[in-house]
Write a structure and sequence with these properties.
The chain has about 350 residues and is of the alpha/beta class. Helix content is about 35%, strand content about 15%. The protein has 2 domains: about 200 residues, 3-Layer(aba) Sandwich (Isopropylmalate Dehydrogenase), CATH 3.40.718; about 120 residues, Isopropylmalate Dehydrogenase (3-Layer(aba) Sandwich), CATH 3.40.718. The chain is built from 12 helices and 12 strands. α4 packs across α6 and α8 packs parallel to α9.
Length: about 350
């Protein structure tokens, strides 16, 4: 069973939401999240080009008034209009047709969101989906959001080297991939006992500190079918995964495994753990997107601030059609507010 978020109230400062790729569904679902607000919703502001957000609202006939403001004004503005903190860079991309020149604004949005959290002007960062190809053309050198947020944290908080960890959280399942944005062959080749232990330590620490789980239970997935079947299907589970579990247990972390991956995600199995530590990207993301596609949230652990994101991409194929579902972004806002707010 997935760990619940422990906080009962939202933050006093607003949440900083990034625009994501402006040609994707980010602007649409941001507008829809504001429309869906209620008395208990945590206020947020959108870091974006106000003119672009207004164009999207008009084109989709979304009746959401927009007001530019500073981050500190957002909690007051939020009740009557969507607070938009203007970027220095404008955007011009059309829905579904990403514009390479907009990458600069996309990156600015993320950097400023982190800066506002560092200064105390925002409570947490909630990121809309990005498209990596236009960012790479603009000089972006990271595999994804997770890795870049780690670098921004190292710069801003002077923490030294950090190892951000990707958690996919939902009320019914939480999963963490040890290896993330690499090919399957490279994931297998680079998987180490140390990497599994380090990942699980960060998960255990943040589940205690941020999720309020006093003794997190971590189910560690095997790499091979049937967790290697005693070595018959590969020795990685004997030589890499099992030693990691033993080290975690010796440190007092409630970890167990390696578990056969094909039998650890049904409802009865999920009730035994708070998070599943998975060996590679799809081993983690396929089950959670199957059981919680609209409610799962991407949450980065191991950072000195809270960052959440919807568990889906830019959806260029439906951008501009008015059919994008804001549920995952709404869940990301809710989780960010709970994790960054006062303890219950």
């Amino acid at each position: 069973m997935s760990a619940g978020a422990p906080h009962s109230q939202g933050p006093s400062a607003a949440l900083a939401m990034t625009q994501g790729d402006p040609s994707g569904i980010g602007p649409e679902i941001a507008l829809k999240c504001w429309l869906a607000r209620n008395a208990s919703s945590a206020p947020f502001f959108l870091l974006a080009d106000p003119a672009h957000i207004a164009r999207v609202a008009r084109s989709l006939d979304i009746a959401a008034p927009i007001k530019t403001c500073d981050p500190t004004e957002a909690p007051v503005v939020f009740g009557a209009a969507l607070p938009v903190v203007p970027l220095a860079n404008t955007v011009s991309g059309q829905p579904g047709k990403t514009e390479p020149g907009d990458a600069v604004a996309t990156l600015e949005s993320i950097e400023r969101a982190v800066a506002y959290v560092r200064s105390g002007e925002a409570a947490a960062v909630v990121t809309n989906p990005i498209a990596k190809e236009p960012l790479y053309k603009a000089g972006f050198k990271h595999p994804g959001h997770t890795e870049w947020l780690g670098e921004l944290a190292e710069r801003g908080w002077n923490t030294g080297a950090l190892r951000p960890v990707m958690l996919l959280w939902s009320p019914t399942l939480s999963v963490v991939p040890v290896t993330i944005h690499v090919s399957l062959s490279r994931a297998i080749a680079t998987l180490t006992t140390d990497a599994i232990v380090e990942t699980a330590r960060i998960v255990a620490a943040d589940f205690r500190a941020k999720f309020g789980v006093s003794n997190p239970r971590l189910a560690v997935a095997g790499l091979n079918p049937h967790a290697g079947e005693g070595g018959a299907m590969g020795r990685e589970d004997i030589e890499i995964v099992a030693p990691a579990v033993a080290r975690l247990q010796a440190e007092g972390i409630d970890a167990f495994g390696p578990m056969p991956p094909d039998t650890m995600f049904h409802a009865a199995a999920r009730a035994r753990y708070d998070a599943a530590i998975c060996m590679y990207h799809d081993q983690a993301l396929i089950p959670i997107k199957t059981v919680a596609f609209d409610s799962a949230v991407n949450c980065t652990l191991g950072l000195p601030f809270v960052r959440t994101s919807p568990d889906h991409g830019t959806a260029f194929d439906i951008a501009g059609k008015g059919v994008a579902d804001p549920s995952s972004l709404m869940a990301a806002l809710d989780l960010a507010a709970r994790l960054s707010g006062p303890r219950a």
